[in-house]
Specification:
By secondary structure, the protein is α/β, with parallel strands linked by helices. Helix 5 runs parallel beside helix 9, helix 6 packs parallel to helix 7 and helix 7 packs antiparallel against helix 12.
């Protein structure tokens, strides 16, 4: 005898299963096909305030300004370090430099580290890198295509961008890591780029001497930035012509501050604050600037989130994707942490920043910090040093040459946004200072940061830039004794 109730129950369950599968796989297919293309443009050695969208009208960046106008400009994004490869590896992994095993310049990311482009690749994205690549061979696994040759004429590497864009597979979403050499020294745009600046057109930062030598140096720097902007315009044009601009997320940022004394390798805002602009016509409908504190380690989690890919536990950053769409623009992080390790010269500095205060501790106060060799041997640096001998520098201009330096610095950002007045000995700030000391110490303990007994020594003479006998020798990497490269602790947020 046929059990009608049993048949009806089985029929219902089958129908329900089919319905659920249809919904699930239908949503999955829609989610997959709807995933945005992503382009990350990383400028080399460009300060946040050397972009027109951030208020510098002496420099021509119309295409970057367009990204900001039609997208969202972020006003408080900070890097984990102001040093090229450690900063890029931190972005790549979503981890602090001492947690990547590559805290120093020209050290390579370890095989145990998460690479967000690799997760994109495994999820079906076509991934490619064009331009500057010095993150080590393990990072090559993250890309289907690597185009790492700099043009023979010194051009900043951007000529590969459009051909790479046009070669992306049509059946896949794509991720492009476009790493310009502009505006890294030595300058190459003066003779090859059509928008040459005159020295009287530049705006001289307060950290530098306003003389003809410095102005000529800055004009060359401006040429590099505007050349980069011009290639971004070419990228936009080709995306529009191929009807891919609407669902392509374009992110523009830099790896550290300008290559001049007082900026690059510093843990003040002049070194670690980055321009950060996100353009995405399909996803961004409000264009109010975002003022929330964000760390560069948050970028990897955000990109994976936007691509509907789970964020691995090893990534220490968090997704700020809601800030792209919400009107709430001032709430995300409470703390920004950054570090300065070896970059041509022995160093160990750590910093914590909030919206109101900046605290820096320096375990090598016996040394000055006038920047890496490309900055401290630049024409602008020679002007500073010449004026230093005559006593004609401001307090801000003298600051890179202080030796010994204070072991601790504490700045009230509301009253001193340029971070000139060190309040470390001011009794009015003692309770605040005690709090920031605890916060920084907890972050170091949580993430396994250590101060090695033997750090990497100077490779070059600090005065004349000549190689020293220790060139090529490495000391102990911060975090080695605690196995910091394998910790999943994210630290304070």
């Amino acid at each position: 005898m046929v059990d009608k109730k049993s048949i009806m129950r089985k029929t219902f369950l089958c129908t329900l299963t089919v319905f659920i599968c249809t919904i699930y796989f239908g949503n999955l297919k829609a989610q997959t096909s709807d995933r945005p293309n992503i382009i990350l443009v990383i400028a080399d050695d460009v300060s946040w305030d050397d972009i027109g969208a951030y208020g510098d009208r002496s420099i021509r960046t119309p295409n970057i300004d367009r990204l900001a106008k039609d997208g969202r400009r972020f006003d408080n994004v900070f890097l984990t370090t102001s040093s090229c490869s450690p900063s890029r590896i931190s972005i790549l992994t979503g981890r602090y430099p001492h947690n990547t095993g590559a805290a120093e310049l020209h050290t390579e990311v370890g095989a145990e580290q998460p690479l967000f482009p690799l997760f994109l690749k495994k999820a079906g994205y076509y991934t490619a890198l064009a331009g500057k690549w010095h993150e080590g061979p393990h990072s090559a696994l993250a890309y289907d295509t690597l185009l790492v040759d700099k043009a023979a004429n010194g051009e900043g590497g951007e000529r590969q961008w459009v051909s790479l864009l046009n070669s992306t597979p049509k059946e896949k979403p794509f991720f492009l890591w476009l790493a310009s050499y502009d505006a890294h020294r030595e300058w190459s745009a003066d003779s090859t780029f059509r928008y040459s600046y005159k020295p009287n057109e530049v705006k001289v930062p307060k950290t530098l001497v306003d003389d003809s030598i410095t102005r000529r140096d800055l004009a060359s720097y401006y040429n590099e930035i505007t050349r980069l902007d011009d290639y971004i315009g070419e990228l936009l044009r080709h995306l529009e012509e191929s009807s891919r601009l609407d669902n392509t997320i374009i992110i523009f940022m830099a790896d550290n501050g300008r290559p001049f004394p007082g900026s690059k390798t510093r843990l003040t805002d002049r070194g670690i604050q980055t321009p950060f602009i996100v353009h995405w016509p399909r996803g961004i409908k409000t264009h109010k600037p975002v003022t929330a504190l964000i760390s560069s380690i948050d970028l990897s989690a955000t990109i994976l989130d936007l691509a509907h890919i789970p964020v691995p536990d090893a990534i220490q950053g968090k997704s700020f994707s809601t800030l792209l769409k919400d009107d709430v623009t001032d709430q995300f992080r409470e703390y920004i942490f950054s570090e300065h390790n070896w970059h041509d010269y022995e160093a160990y500095e750590r910093a914590v920043r909030t919206t109101e205060y900046l605290y820096i501790v320096n375990e090598r106060p016996q040394f000055n910090n006038d920047g890496p060799i490309d900055a401290n041997q630049s024409p602008s640096a020679h002007s500073l040093k010449a004026r230093l001998l005559t006593g004609g520098l401001s307090k801000l201009q003298q600051e890179p040459y202080i030796s010994p330096r204070p072991r601790e610095e504490f700045y009230d950002l509301k009253g001193d946004p340029e971070q000139v007045q060190n309040k470390i000995d001011d009794p009015l700030y003692h309770s605040k200072l005690a709090h920031f000391r605890k916060v920084l110490k907890k972050w170091q303990d949580d993430t396994g940061d250590t101060l090695p007994a033997v750090l990497t020594n100077d490779w070059y003479d600090r005065a004349d830039g000549q190689p020293l006998r220790d060139k090529g020798k490495r000391g102990e990497m911060p975090g080695r004794t605690t196995d910091a490269r394998n910790t999943k602790n994210k630290g304070s947020f």
